[in-house]
Amino acid sequence: MRQSLQSILFIQTAFLGDAILSTPLIGALSSRFPEASIDVVAIPQTEPVFRHHPDVRRVLVFDKRNPLLKPAMFLDLVRGIRGEAYTLGVSATRSATSALLMRLGKIPSRVGFRGQKGLTDPVRPPRGLHMRHRYLSLMRPFGGTSWPDQTVLSWAPEHDETAGRLLEDEKGCRFLVGVAPGSVRATKRWPGAYYTRLVALLESRGVRVVLLGSPEERGLCRRIASRAGTDSPVLAGRTGILEAAAVIRRLDLMITNDSAPLHMADAVKTPVFAFFGPTVRRFGCTPYRPDDRVLEIDLPCRPCSKHGGRVCPRFHFRCMREQTPDAVCDAVLQFLEKRHA
User: Fold this and answer.
1) Which residue from 10, 110, 172, 222 has the highest number of Cβ atoms inside 10 Å of its Cβ?
2) In this predicted structure, what is the pLDDT of residue 306?
3) What is the pTM of this model?
4) Do domains 7-142 and 157-339 have the same CATH topology?
5) Which residues contact 269 (CB under 8 A, 6 or more apart)?
6) What pLDDT digit, counting tens, does each position of 7-40 carry?
């Protein structure tokens, strides 16, 4: 592997959580090759993750999930990659498309996970690593084994200003807690009725709750606030990724499922309590900071899925239903009181 590089192409076209978990790898590449510029290929949904990253020069958007645009965008991207004459390509996905981009783009040094075709330096990470360490294992061809593993989200001043306006009315609160009840996969969601009870309990104990999520989850968040009988602000659908990150940075605690807000909270160093049901720690996507907590119960049927599903395969959903709102509320209150003692 050459020791001096002029430009690096980093390809990360997975979902939001994966994009955030791969940010330490960008920092490691920048530290190892400080003279090189780094460009990132990302999907439209995750472009904000890299837009203000201090080590990224620019983001190339590739809408690979649009079947009508993908072929033309792929060819345009290949032409652009050839024109830039990148000296190193690093694929943070196992996608055949990512490997092909590097090869057709005539990048001489191509690093990625073993199994992709056309790599010059395939890497096989050990089993059992947290995802951010799996990504960092792609540094092996360059020597060195220890790299900072804190995930990163950066934003512009205007995103901070928007977050401040959204939370203007909550300035006098002793405790401010975020709740993100959504997830793409139904079995990864703690029940909505449980979130409703938790919000009601927390608000009755003097904890101000802010409900967060995507535009598609706004209805769920509004129902939870309404049925809880509270005036908890619903910010779901009112922020982009970076405004939401700036909001989460201001919270005392984030409560969520095994979903993207978990990784956003870790990236901005806000403690997170995360519900894990069908998924487990060894999959490598749990919160990792010292004050974080994985909320789970031990059952012989776990894990039942790597990504969650539509229904519980055994139709009892005990992994989530046996985690009661009252017990979670007690744990949250104990944490908040101890942290602010």
Assistant:
1) 10
2) 85
3) 0.94
4) yes
5) 150, 249, 289
6) 999 999 999 999 999 999 999 999 999 999 999 9
Domain boundaries, the chain: 7-142, 157-339
C-alpha span between 235 and 11 (Å, rounded): 31
The yes-or-no verdict on residue 74 having pLDDT over 70 is yes
Take residue 136 and report the two structure tokens written for it. Answer: 């960092």
Per-residue model confidence (pLDDT) at position 4: 58
- Indicate the CATH number for domain 7-142: 3.40.50.2000
| Each residue's pLDDT tens digit, 39-55 | 999 999 999 999 999 99
Residue 17 and residue 132 in contact, taking contact as beta carbons nearer than 8 Å: no
CA distance 214 to 239: 8
Can you give the length of the chain in residues?
Answer: 341
Q: What are the pLDDT digits (tens) for 86-131? A: 999 999 999 999 999 999 999 999 999 999 999 999 999 988 999 9
Q: Is 164 helix (H, G, I), strand (E, B) or coil?
A: helix
The string of DSSP letters for 62-124 reads --TT-TTTHHHHHHHHHHHHHHHT-SEEEE-S--HHHHHHHHHTT-SEEEEEBTBTT-SEEE-
Cα-atom radius of gyration of the chain, to the nearest Å? 21
User: Within 10 Å of residue 286's Cβ, how many Cβ atoms?
Assistant: 21
**For 157-339, which CATH superfamily applies?**
Glycogen Phosphorylase B; (3.40.50.2000)
Close Cβ partners of 187 (under 8 Å, ≥ 6 residues apart)? 277, 278, 304, 305, 308, 309, 310, 311, 312, 317, 320
